[in-house]
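Lecture notes, structural biology module. Today: joint structure prediction for complexes of two components.
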Amino acid sequence: MRVGGIEGGGTKFVCAIGTGPDDIEAEVRFPTTTPEETLRNAIEFFSSQERPVDRIGIASFGPLDLNPESPRFGFISQTPKVGWPNTDVRGTISRALDVPVWIDTDTNAPALAEHKWGALQGLDTCLYITVGTGIGGGGLVGGKLMHGLVHPEMGHMRIPHDKAVDPFEGACPFHKDCWEGLAAGPAIEARWKCRGENLPDEHPAWALEARYLAFALQNLILTLSPQRIVVGGGVMDRAHLFPMVRQEVVSLLNAYVRSPAILEGIDTLIVPPALGNRAGVLGGIALAQAELVGPVGLV
Amino acid sequence: MRVGGIEGGGTKFVCAIGTGPDDIEAEVRFPTTTPEETLRNAIEFFSSQERPVDRIGIASFGPLDLNPESPRFGFISQTPKVGWPNTDVRGTISRALDVPVWIDTDTNAPALAEHKWGALQGLDTCLYITVGTGIGGGGLVGGKLMHGLVHPEMGHMRIPHDKAVDPFEGACPFHKDCWEGLAAGPAIEARWKCRGENLPDEHPAWALEARYLAFALQNLILTLSPQRIVVGGGVMDRAHLFPMVRQEVVSLLNAYVRSPAILEGIDTLIVPPALGNRAGVLGGIALAQAELVGPVGLV
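The predicted structure, tokenised, for the full assembly:
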């Protein structure tokens, strides 16, 4: 079976054909512009290959309608991204290439890729968090990708914000000082008037960032009891954040959850992605490869 | 098949035999004292019946070891409750009565009962939260009870706490102003120097309580995307809290999650328990009845 993967991001699309991280035979990247042009570029990539693909999986930005009984299944529903609300991503690709297409969020699909090939192998309850221009999260619970009423939007959870320490009001257009509003890349830049990558390791920005990340990761640990959390995204390229975040999480939990995985094993509980920035497109491939799935792309 | 259920709470135990909420043939309640006396009382109830039970399910306070591969599977692990750490609840009952015993938390088991007979029927991702002397939560995700590394301890998540509005420092011995530390019954009493049940409906305590509950429920909605959340426990006997909490949740989410279930259906998204305070012992019965389970009591 020949499988294609698409990472449909808000700023760029990546399309690839292959079977896994060590076997990608073709790949293309292009910027996300209008839905028409962007999806046409994706279709042209696959249709210009010598041999057609049998299936495609898409890791898409959202929010998505993932209810297989909905007439808008596989659509991007509402999004502030101009032109993209109500775009039938799945149907457009599927009809143009005449192949079955699986779709899931740009956090669930990378979680599946990390589960199949990366840092989440063998675990049944595990999360993939991305901290970049926004914050998002997905994962598997009890061995199944997280869906529910819609799908998780973890980046918008509320966390403590001590305005005496950090008077920045928050950058989220919906909630101001939710997790994303306090800790995503744009929040760092707006607070410190400097892009995060230009702030030195010893800048106080990072202790504050680690604390906000730790508040949210602690909430996820208490809510879902994950066996491991992968934290990726551009902000986490600052590797010195990992030990700071882990220490804060242990400190905040204060030995309430008496699991050795937390008390002694925090270094392997909160980890960077093993697949780096390829988890998205590999997530698309993993979705399309998933065995025993219905037409909905659920595992 | 004749099934018994046990609600093992921190203050009282309830044991029952029956098939569901409308068919309980025998029931007993007694206070939780030492593990020896309390478990002996439970064993005597079942062994004094004319006919033995074939299976028992236990909804137990915790934290519990629910890893079926652990030598301490079915033990209460650590608990501040004197005498109870390292108590083999499941094994003690199972050996004394020579029956298979299923065990899960005192929030997962009630979630299963509400799923089988109550407010969560037909849903695959749904939560049961209890707000009483503590705050806890469990539920089903993708049709399976929530486990993971340990089990959820949602009551200890961190939420915003504006000390200018509410200078109370919080009552949780581990985290001070976590959700439980701000919003469980003892926090209400410590803050207002008055037990919650003696505070009139128009007292400002309730607007503050609704806000703390809404912060946490909003976080659960964003993290898990549940199709419904049952909120029970002694504090929620104040029915006027429900409309206040629902309104706060909608206001906090600020139309970010554009699901009709939230925008128009919040009255059926956040609901009181249908089984009232019987969800615990019925949860034990539901655990023992569960089909296709292994020796671990997972569904």
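Point to remember: Chain B is about 35% helix and 20% strand.
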